[in-house]
Amino acid sequence: MPKRDHYRPGTPSWIELATPDPAAAERFYGPLMGWSFHTEPAGEDATYTMVLRDGEPVAGLMTQPPEQIEMGLPALWNTYVTVESADEAAARAAGAGGSVMAPPFDVMDVGRMAVVVDPAGAVTCVWEPRAHIGAHLVNEPGAFTWAELVTPDQTGAAAFYGQVFGWSATATEMPPIGTMTFFQLDGDDIASALTLPDVPPHWQVYLGVGDCDAACAAVEAGGGSVLADPVDAPPGRMAPVADPAGAVFSVIALAQPAA
Known about the structure:
Strands 9, 10, 11, 12, 13, 14, 15, 16 and 17 form a nine-stranded mixed beta sheet that branches. The protein is an alpha+beta fold. The chain is globular. Helices cover 19% and strands 44% of the residues. The chain has helices spanning 22-33, 66-70, 86-95, 154-165, 212-221; strands at 12-19, 36-41, 47-53, 56-63, 76-82, 99-107, 111-117, 123-129, 144-150, 168-174, 178-185, 188-194, 202-208, 225-226, 231-233, 236-242, 248-254. It has two domains: 12-129, 2,3-Dihydroxybiphenyl 1,2-Dioxygenase, domain 1; 144-254, 2,3-Dihydroxybiphenyl 1,2-Dioxygenase, domain 1 (Roll).
């Protein structure tokens, strides 16, 4: 699809892998997704790696904070949602029954962000863009395609994200999964939510691939794991997987390119 040059406020726009070993992540994701990597300074004694597909930024890669590692948390994918004001979005999150894990702060000249937590415990990053709008490519192989909230309380999530991002929500029965909630922005589906027993609340990212089954084989060959067999659904053929450090994501071969 064409290169993105902006995102409407309320749109998931960026994903970021926090992992204890970024070099190992590059070796895993590079051949799997066709990614290259460019590491840049990110303040005093810090770096940030831009993940590139065909020379365009599609994701971020960073060293997982030591406190997360000490807590025993596995590597994880963060989801960012574009907002007009990070300060106002953080205030809305707190007012809607959530909490603010990281108060708003400037990321050099590229943007301003905050990290918020919904009432069930799922973490989201809010992004006020400046020099960096988010991913330049989406909805194609090697790029971010979808964000899905795993939560025990879909009704509560709909209320929370409606207040924070202006999302509307529609609950739909999806056998054999059960109830799924689709979040809409200006009438367009932009994310979803489901409930999985015994799975902690979190946002899961979907990465596009050309062939889901081949991607699953490559995940295992690279030291990762396939968490469930691929299934066919209206959006495409998909499967949940994990990288060698434990970061969970899904791969999807889209039935047709999304707009």
